Amino acid sequence: MSKRTSYAAVAADGAPAKNIDITGESSPPPYDKQKDLLGSDTGHFSLIRAMHLADLITELNGLCGVLSLFSSMRYLIDPSSLGNIYAALALIPLGLFFDFFDGKVARWRKKSSMMGQELDSLADLISFGVSPAIAAFAIGIRTPLDHLCLAFFVLCGLTRLARFNVTATTIPKDATGKARYFEGTPIPTSLALDALMAWWVSKGWIHEAIPFGTLFEGTVFEVHPVVVLFMIHGCLMTSKTLHVPKP
């Protein structure tokens, strides 16, 4: 949720802008150690050495998403073990904690980068896009048409994050430099779906007991109506006109 962008100024075309001193003279941009390390052809573990503390915290967000996927898979192997599906659903909000914390650390240390922004989006896609969709599959939303609807949800999240990376510098900013709003709902709002699925699991409303049952059962159009919630959420994420104020 806490998206990170570079502290360096950028020109209108997205290229790094030159620093301007009070006399109007242009000066070279400040040295970017991370960019130098990433572009280096030599040096052991240069990628690891190039990462900021905030980047490592972002990796923990991605780790939560991956572990959530594994927990859903373990539940598919043994559906009698509800602990695995609860773990899958609980790891998603834990990922949100790291997603929020990495931005705080980046602003505190005043070290942010384009690499951090890309890591943030990729981790969000795993934790808040793919993981909820796989959890939904695990609890029984798994007809062929369900697959397409869940895939639509994930692709909407992917598109929304890509758009954010492209437009991050063009969205109006407040006095502190933070964007004033999100275009479309942020992908971490999929936690609402996560909480809903956790409630269903607690009530035993999974598999054959999923709320609202199944439509067109036994046909190629067999589908669980609740999958529409994922599709609606996907549409909200990709909306251009829906502006969600940043807290």
UniProtKB/TrEMBL annotation:
Endpoints of the signal sequence: none
Principal subcellular localisation of the protein: endoplasmic reticulum
Pfam families assigned to the protein according to its UniProt record, in alphabetical order: CDP-OH_P_transf
Listed EC numbers: 2.7.8.8
NCBIfam families from the UniProt entry: pssA
Species: Podospora appendiculata
GO biological process, alphabetically ordered: phosphatidylethanolamine biosynthetic process; phosphatidylserine biosynthetic process
Keywords from the named record: Endoplasmic reticulum, Lipid biosynthesis, Lipid metabolism, Membrane, Phospholipid biosynthesis, Phospholipid metabolism, Transferase, Transmembrane, Transmembrane helix
Protein name: CDP-diacylglycerol--serine O-phosphatidyltransferase
